Amino acid sequence: MFQERVLEIIIFILNELKHEKNFSDIDYSELTKIGYTDSEINTAIAWIYSRIQENEKMFFENLSSTKSIRVLNSVEKRLFTPEAIGYLITIRELGIISEEDFEFLIDKITSLNLHKVDLADLKPVISSFVLNLDDPHDKRNRLLINNNDTIN
């Protein structure tokens, strides 16, 4: 649950940045008002900063330069609820995941043999993937271990 909430905050922040705001222009108190903890907010900010420090361009990729758009086949259309596929598309459009990640996640979720994939099924898989929880040797995981620290 913690990692899912962190991913929701990451999405919020990137949406704000997409609208040409700076980190300092974002009203983080809104997140606190709707129930997110300082620990969750700080972890999300630290995760974004760690990607920026590693010169990852994933957040700011020009997705319009993509020559093709992934279309769901008939099985995938029946498998995912509209909300679930919309969520996947949103995180792809924000640059949180790449086109390759999008394809990988669809394949991974399809292999779970669920009858219908909704947001409740999707969010744990996505947050685990995005926050690199599947790789215990990834140094970025320490952001989730020491999540009581604050960023000044």
Features of this protein?
mainly alpha, 0% strand
Give the helix level as a range of percent: 55-70%
In round numbers, the mean pLDDT is: 79
What shape does the CA trace take? globular
Q: How many helices in DSSP terms?
A: 8
- List segments where confidence is low: pLDDT < 50 over at least 5 consecutive residues: 136-152
Order of helices and strands: HHHHHHHH
Largest sheet features: none
Radius of gyration of CA atoms, rounded to a whole number:
16 Å
Describe the protein.
The model is unreliable at 136-152 (pLDDT under 50). The chain has one domain. The chain is 55% helix and 0% strand. It has eight helices and no strands. The protein has 152 residues and is an all-alpha fold.
Indicate the topology.
Elements: H1 2-18, H2 29-33, H3 38-53, H4 74-79, H5 82-93, H6 99-110, H7 119-130, H8 142-145
Helix pairs in contact: 1-3, 1-7
How is this structure best summarized?
The chain is mainly α and 152 residues long. Helices cover 55% and strands 0% of the residues.
